[in-house]
Amino acid sequence: MSEFFQRNLQVIEQRWPALAERLLLEDAGALQADLVEGLGSTLSINGIQLTSRHDRLAEADLQAASLPPDAAVVHVYGTGLGDLQNHMLERAGVERLYVHILNGSVFALVLQLLDQSPWLADSRVELLYAGDLAEIQLPFFALPAELVLADDFNAKIRDRLISEIHLAFSNREFDPKAPEIIERLQATFNLVQTDHDVTELFGSFNGREAFVIATGPSLEQHFEKLRELNDQAERPLLICVDTAYRPLINHGIRPDVVVSIDQRISARHLPPEDTGDIALVYLPMADPSVIEAWQGPRYVGYSASPIYHQMRQLLRRGELYVGGSVIHPAVDLAVKMGAAQITLFGADFAFPHDKTHAGWGDGDLGPQLGVAKHWVLDGHGQRVKTQLNFRSYLCELERFIAGHPQVRFYNSSRDGARIVGADFHPEYVQ
């Protein structure tokens, strides 16, 4: 045990004894650690530099500048080499600094190599593992290197941090003044005016069970059982997302409701033939030619997006929750229809079995397996390939589930992402 580690650990044991015990169990020796030199030096972990190798203090100044200058409470995600923590504690107005560990082994290694006791001993500091809390805290700065190095225990918080950081970038496509958005809303205005209000469906399914069907690869495990439901008089309500419609129809499964929100969905995804007994729920950004061709009853609603602000003033319609993916309004519709229990099918948010979607080829719906550089934990506790936007959609679904404790949520498969708040269905989970 190094002199630095003894000094650092002593402070942690005095202030956070339970956390000290956890740190002693971390396997810092499993990390590939290297000294990287430039104008200064830093530590590289598994090929990722924890800080600048030229000027760590200038980097910490830049990071601190992104935080509100008058914030009394600040959250730092990742421990780094302690530079940002020390810088924040120099601010007179900081009353509490929460430091959230994103990788316990990395922090244990740094404790062996560098004196961290000045910031650890400061009475304004609270130290915890990021994964000990279910949600991120604001305002925050997340150290970039440790967003990459985050371990399995803290992965859920990492995903929420990245989603929050990318929020403005993700919303760039939804500018109410964008010509293509104005043109699309003008094209669907008459349809919105004449079609049913989605609120007509609300409360129509009180106390019953709904299946919400997405297009993740695990859906393929359930085609046979879902097809058997077709002949049952008292079967659950089947709500599917637009891209799941064709795979379901191809396997003899007829959903009750299809939900579509994306302007890129075409008749290729939603062929209109023989749809007279299937309801379509859509948002006004959907393709008007697809809406018009649909033979069954059509219901329209809005999301909270500012792109619908003007139309909302002219035409009052109900609202569905959208968190970036069509899975969100599909689940929200089931809740607002009154379902007491919702089972999710194909809600994988990942690429299990080296596939991107059920019933579609690699790249048919956009993402290709070969470009998946990120991971999420599946229901077996193993890492499975995914992409950043899928992780963001997962975060928003988990937040939605947490906000609706009156509904029982189930996941039908362990192969996709673990969905916090959704138990594994005893009948459908393989």
UniProtKB/TrEMBL annotation:
<dbReference type="Pfam" id="PF01973">
    <property type="entry name" value="MptE-like"/>
</dbReference>
<protein>
    <recommendedName>
        <fullName>6-hydroxymethylpterin diphosphokinase MptE-like domain-containing protein</fullName>
    </recommendedName>
</protein>
<dbReference type="InterPro" id="IPR002826">
    <property type="entry name" value="MptE-like"/>
</dbReference>
<feature type="domain" description="6-hydroxymethylpterin diphosphokinase MptE-like">
    <location>
        <begin position="192"/>
        <end position="353"/>
    </location>
</feature>
